[in-house]
Amino acid sequence: QVQLVESGGGLVxxxxxxxxxxxxxxxxxxxxxxxxxxxxxxxxxxxxxxxxSDGTTNYGDSAKGRFTISRDHAENTVDLQMNSLKxxxxxxxxxxxxxxxxxxxxxWGQGTQVTVSS
Length: 118
Hints:
By secondary structure, this protein is mainly beta. The chain has no helices and eleven strands. It has strands spanning about 1-5, 10-15, 20-25, 35-40, 45-50, 55-60, 65-70, 75-80, 90-100, 105-110, 110-115. Strands 2, 4, 5, 6, 9, 10 and 11 form a seven-stranded mixed sheet that branches. The protein has a four-stranded antiparallel sheet with strand order 1-3-8-7, with no helix packed on it. Strand 9 and strand 10 form a beta hairpin. It starts with a strand and ends with a strand.
């Protein structure tokens, strides 16, 4: 099993920045991809982006140009740097990981709230 714990959420004004962190523990040797999703109130969970084991990053449409995902294999962490935040970025952000080289869906963190005020 893999445990994922997110941190770094909070309240930020529009135009500001926030950095989320996720640390993995447990059977970390099985992890191939790690990434982030978000779910806004009343909406479906959507992919923000993920990093493969070779460092390749893939982003969802909402994240392109403003968000950056980085991964530290030695520390078993994946971070999400969010810039130029908008009120529509308000959501619960979830860390995810997978044992296959694909969009991560196997393991989930508990989520961290990000609120962007206008």
